[in-house]
Amino acid sequence: MTAWEEAWNARDAEALAALYHDDAVNHQVAFGAPRVGRDTMRADFRECFAAFPDSFTRVEVTLIDGDRAAVEWFGGATWAGPFAGRASTGATFTLRGCGFFLITGGKIKAQRGYFDRATWFGQLGLPVG
């Protein structure tokens, strides 16, 4: 989980993707359908960091039980590139959320994340729906 936080804060899509199995599943519930596969996640991370190049996350709580981990995080960024089909506005946001991970063989096999999309999009001036 430390490596995940460090890779996110370095905004290093390659290092972050390398933490996942080839067929890992990432389900960010606020976005709908799960994303499947390391390559898909790498592309998602690149897109996120292009839109929010100063993105940061601070893990505030980590719970580990065998091959499962849960984190509570606080993060934020400035909207500086295309996102959600729209041009950037320079708006900033902060957000809290949590993530649940299944780790096998030293890599993330599954991830499920929860955050309030209305809070995030509201700060960016985007429609929630």
Short description:
The protein is 27% helix and 42% strand. The chain is an alpha+beta fold. Strands 2-1-6-5-4-3 form a 6-stranded mixed sheet.
Distance between the termini: 31 Å
pLDDT below 50 for ≥5 consecutive residues: which ranges?
Answer: none
* Shape field: globular
Total DSSP E strands:
6
Q: In percent terms, what proportion of residues is strand?
A: 35-45%
In order across it, which strands form the biggest sheet? 2-1-6-5-4-3
- Please outline the major beta sheet: 6 strands, mixed
Q: How would you spell out the order of helices and strands? A: HHEEHEEEEH
What is the CATH topology?
Nuclear Transport Factor 2, Chain: A
Q: How many individual helices?
A: 4
- Give the oligomeric state: single chain
CATH class: Alpha Beta
User: How many domains, as an integer?
Assistant: 1
Residue share in helix? 25-40%
So, CATH architecture? Roll
Name the average pLDDT: 96
